Amino acid sequence: MHFCPQKIIRLAPDRMNPSGYHPAEVVEQERCTSCRICALMCPDVVIEVYR
Questions:
Q1: How far are the Cα atoms of 14, 26, 32 from residue 39, in angstroms, in the given order?
Q2: CA spacing 20 to 30 A to 45: which of 1, 19, 26, 31?
Q3: What is the pLDDT of residues 3-34, one digit of tens each?
């Protein structure tokens, strides 16, 4: 989420994943440019970008 050039990814404050972490979420999908930096930088390789 720190690498997003649009700054539209944040940690979900009201959800937890099975590992006990707050998952990342896109807050303004219409501003996403599909640059895929989030997918490239994700340490768990769980982000896919569709456009």
A1: 23, 12, 13
A2: 31
A3: 999 999 999 999 998 889 898 899 999 999 99
